[in-house]
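User: Need the bound-state model for adenosine monophosphate:
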Amino acid sequence: MVSSPDAEHHDDVGEHGGRLRSFRHERGNWASYVYVAFRPHEELWEMLDELKSVARKHGVHLTTAEEIHVSLSHTVILRHHWIQPFIQSLREKLCTTRRFLCVADLLKVYVNKEKSRTFLGLEVARGRQQLLEVVSGVDLSLQEFHLETFYQNPSFHVSLAWCVGDMAKALQGACLLELQRVVDDFEDSDVLTRFYADTIYCKCGNKVMSIPLC
Ligand code: AMP
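Assistant: Bound-state model below.
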């Protein structure tokens, strides 16, 4: 359930691990996004520890992502009374979509639009075409509600870790090559980097709605 939708929300930077919110919370407005869940194997955390220590050697202190997923939309603002109709619209667009296998094994560095956060992510190679098809359905629903659609040419990825600021330069080049070697050489990395896209989720505030694929 949405907890106290009309409650005041204060934009406390401390609550978000030092990250800055790029929009203000307002009464009845819910920050929302659509995604595919990635359920990590235990060993992924070991691999991530290795990745973080390589990044540290290059002067970048990464924090583990709290929620591991593949975004299928930007974060958009939904009015409270739009949530149910929006989910209904998504269900209609995705009702014939079949579940599919994804493989995300290529590390890439991402920076948000505001250049206030940098992410280390695993890009989805296998499954990209099907994700594009899901996004075209999600985009139709977003358009119905006059909301921003996703990137024209998205790079679908699983963000594993992040840091404050634009640290792309420090992470790319030699550092990224070293990081990729950790992934390639990790035992069972082929198992850790594959997942089934079987459910699409929409998170609105602290409420998560699921749309199972066929
Ligand atoms: P996410 O983990 O899905 O929140 O993505 C991390 C960041 O990557 C977001 O702030 C996105 O805006 C950013 N990003 C930058 N370039 C791209 C791209 N081509 N496709 C998807 N996300 C991107």
